[in-house]
Write a structure and sequence with these properties.
Blueprint lengths: L12 E3 L10 H6 L6 E7 L5 E8 L11 H41 L10
Antiparallel strand pairs: 1-2, 2-3
Pfam family, one: GAF
InterPro entries: GAF (IPR003018), GAF-like_dom_sf (IPR029016)
Protein name: cGMP-specific 3',5'-cyclic phosphodiesterase
């Protein structure tokens, strides 16, 4: 199944009602959650690669009920930090895997049976 906004995104997308043809409301029908407004933006890493997608649903404000340009700017700013966090987590994961690989290699190399001494 392809739920709009979570499987792929290339640019900022916002809609104000569910009449937009690009919106797939199948997930809403399954969960019973009623979506009126949606703001969807990519999460990018430091290399400007998309590493995730964020969605803001149903703006709840006394003055505005639709997402504005200010909302887009605020979400984009927040997602910059999300991208940094995801990137840091990926670096830490790669470091942890490399550390474990090196630890196992070191143990194998220094195993008592592998202690080759010329006599």
């Amino acid at each position: 199944m392809n739920y709009f906004g979570t499987s792929f995104i290339i640019c900022v997308f916002s809609f104000q009602n569910r009449k937009d043809a690009r919106y797939n409301d199948e997930l809403s029908r399954i969960t019973g959650y009623h979506v009126e407004t949606l703001l969807c933006m990519p999460i990018r890493n430091g290399d400007n690669e998309i590493v995730g997608v964020a969605q803001a649903l149903n703006k709840n404000s006394e003055t505005d009920t639709v997402f504005t340009l200010d909302d887009e700017k605020m979400l984009a700013t927040y997602l910059t930090f999300c991208g940094i966090g995801i990137h840091n987590a990926q670096i830490f994961d790669a470091y942890s895997k490399e550390y474990e690989r090196n630890r196992v290699s070191y143990q194998l190399f220094h195993w008592p049976e592998n202690d080759f001494h010329l006599q």
